[in-house]
Structures
1.
Amino acid sequence: MRTLVRSLLGIAFLCSTARFGFAMCDPAGADAADIAAARAAIAANCDCAGAPTHGAYVSCAAGQAQTTLVNKSCQGKVVRCAARSTCGKPGFVVCCRADAAGMLKCSTKSGCDHCMPPDGGSACCSTETSCCGATGVDKAGACDASNTPPCATTTTVP
């Protein structure tokens, strides 16, 4: 009897851990098209420029991600991208910064005058609305090192 109970508990444990392993989001691989479809639904159904608040835009994006994504474990990545946008924040810009060691970061700032370079680094403002698609910004939300300086097509901050 003990062996049967232990066996059933072992099988239940394996099944429960395997389910979580298969649900992992792979934005660069198998889930790339799913994420792209969710972002397209957000762009089509959530008004970035006309959002009354940033929270309202992010809430709309979360709803679109929930209904569009096949792999629900990717919802956090999609919503995080919307949260790192200027949507519903009039006057805000995407700021791309590179430090002296080449570490690149993207964030939103209340104006280009607040986009300051780190010591020995560079900074620029992008005309994009999100760190997840800004010129000079990769899909993970970091500035793209292939542009020198990052956001080469926009104004570089001294």
2.
Amino acid sequence: MTANNDTPEGWSKPKPPPKEPKIEWVSIEKLLDDYTIAVLAEAVEKLNVQTYDDTGRRILATNDGTHESKSKAFALSHLAHRYFMLQNPGPDDYLFDERLEIEGSPLDLFGWPKAELPDLDSVNPHHSSTIKASPTATLATSWISNAQTIAKNYLSRHNAKALHPNMKETSEHVAAEMRKIKIYGPQKRPLEPGYIKRHALQGEFWKGRNGY
């Protein structure tokens, strides 16, 4: 080896990894926070939903069967499972949310670049209905506001005692309180601490926590 970390004779310096243009990916999983499963199922079927192939390229989801993980049918089968869970809630549903926290969701790989996101507000998924499906953005805003109010009160009480709960403790407290007073999320289900942390407490809210 040469001195001063010079490149040895006959070797070439490594090149930086190639870059791709940055895009903001909007997944079906993320859209479940704001739109009904029926709307998203219709969009998967008819609005050129994209996914990733084995080399990381974005492609149109295929028309293959559910056995093919890059097919529209595969995405629809997962949406159908989520709808079944909503219609048939059970005491162990929280385990599914925990699994999503750890492993992620297959629906993370289906969606659109933000610049190509279709107008989901205009999607009507029902055969006989003339009423346009609308997003549950108002409901989402409502639960987030309630969650942040509960968190502010919790942090304020502890800050007054020179105690500073971390985000995990705070989100667990908020989840417990919201269950008590029956405040639910966009899918009308009790929210898990990890979901509350991601959607209501991270970012600017948590940065300002010492002011509460």
3.
Amino acid sequence: MAQQCMRVVGRVNDCKENGGTLDLSDCQLMQVPDAVFMLMKNTTLHSCTLAGNLITKIPPKLAMSFSLVTELNLSSNRISALPSEMSSCSQLETIDISANSFVQLPPVLIEISSLNKVNASKNFIADVEIEAMVGCTNLEHVNLEQNPLNKNVYEDLAKITSIRILLSPREQEEWEDLSV
């Protein structure tokens, strides 16, 4: 635990020195430590990586404290939802929520007008609010590879040309083949 704290404090200090890029990846964190918010109080954060941890929940405080972040990497955790406060991240351009436990694209992402790239690969997403996604004017790139998208959603996503959407080849489910 002490070693983990020292690693986090060291990385926060690195962030202060290197212009607002905080990398807390692979720190075995189960949550975002409150100390991070206190230590970063007077530092503008532009990029934040929390990848490769054991985090299940993103605290609303993250969005409120780091509202100017442009890049957020939450990949390879155990997150299944994002707090509604994320909408206050008005500068957020890129978010990586790949390899988590999402069953849908977080609705709050639609509210972030600056967002142009979303990586949501390797989740459990079966359904997507297609109209809402297409309505996001700045959204350019969405990765939905390796998700169990339902057939209609997959087909509708494949037709979208205004956004570059990455999809894995869809495997036909056994129950869908009713010709037997």
